User: Fold this.
Amino acid sequence: MDYHNYTLSLQEYLLYGLLYIIINGIISYLFFMSVIAFIIFMPGIYFFYKYLRKALKSKRDKTLTFQFKEYINIISSLLSTGYSLENSIIESVKELHSLYPGSYMEDEAKLMVHKIMLHIPPDLLFKDFAERTDIDPIKTFSEILSIASKSGGNLIDIILSTTSSIRMQIDIRREIDTALSGKKYEFIIMSIMPILIMIYIKFTQPGFFNPVYGNLLGALLMFICLCFYMLSIYLAYKILSKIQ
Assistant:
């Protein structure tokens, strides 16, 4: 499996497509009270899907990174008990299945076992995995394993040391994500608050927005407000992404 891109399933296309239609309908109704606006904004679904693929890929990468941490923990434990690297990889599948049944990492571990049976060296297995994922901790482990295999050093000690370092690195990232989770919820709440306020005004004070509906000047004014609203959401999203 190539992890460089995220491919939406048919179910995801339908689900998120419906979500975009609902969002588009709400915005077109609140800001313009116009079916024409709804039709004009429909091509934006392309960019919505593009954003979703990026967001879902990032989520998958984080999941795979955490699962990889557990995977190399299992391998390290097996190495410590006297297993060879090849046998550790083979035996790790059982424990990994108990932790993450049907996960990305379990599928990759099974693939590695299959390739080991074909007498492919472990360093090449992890190199292939790193190239397909392009995830830093996996690439680091692969590079160090490759160097250790070629240099003829104490492979087990090097793997144990590398595993400890990578585990610490991943744990720090996870702590950062946990610390930012509150900010993400605040971002979501602040993003939908203007819409909720408009809905409240529209239904508690009917006719309040009528002066800006059905005329060019009002449409232009609401379009400018919508642009500022979308820009603020985009900037807030970029700031949170940079912090991560």
Remarks:
- The chain has one domain: 10-243.
- The chain has a mean pLDDT of 90.
- The longest helix spans residues 155-204.
